[in-house]
Amino acid sequence: MNARSRKGLSLVELMVTIGIMVIVGGILARFLVIGGAAWHSGDAAIQAAQEARKGIMYMTRELRQANLASLANTAGAKYAQHPNTDYNSVVFRVVTVFAGNNNYGAYGSVMTNAGVPNLSAPISYYINNNQLIRLKDNVTKVLANNVTGLAFRLQKDSYTLNGQECAVTTLLITLQTSKTTAERRQIPMTLTSAVLLRN
Q: Which phi and psi (to 5°) does residue 98 adopt?
């Protein structure tokens, strides 16, 4: 084999090697892009879930103390008059200790001297600029970010226990959040909670 044919053969080998490297590099690059997108999606899902969990836990904890008769939306529609209706806001009051020296002792009571429950100032939950807001005494607190939906539904169920008709009132809370990935994909998250209300 002369030098000229050896040179031609090594050029062919070089071209084949470069071609194989380009194909392998393209495959690896594709795996990196897919892996990066999956990582961004997973990260966005975690962030959306954290925001939803923060908001739903706070609302659930406080709404467990809500006075059923006080539940309304920010427009004033009473939940008790319109069960099984979805509302995007809630205004309610919780029973609080009546501080000071009254007929019930120096430590206070949840009942006033007139014998009625002592209720807090109105507390509101609603969405403003993709944030879940809590409002009480003109003080706003952001409970969650990236919020895309909020729904409250009063559900009344009845059942028979030992021959007696019993009623259960539950407030269903649905909170939706969404996070955008670096690839501009929306990753939604929906959490629901049920709160057994006091009468």
A: -80, 105
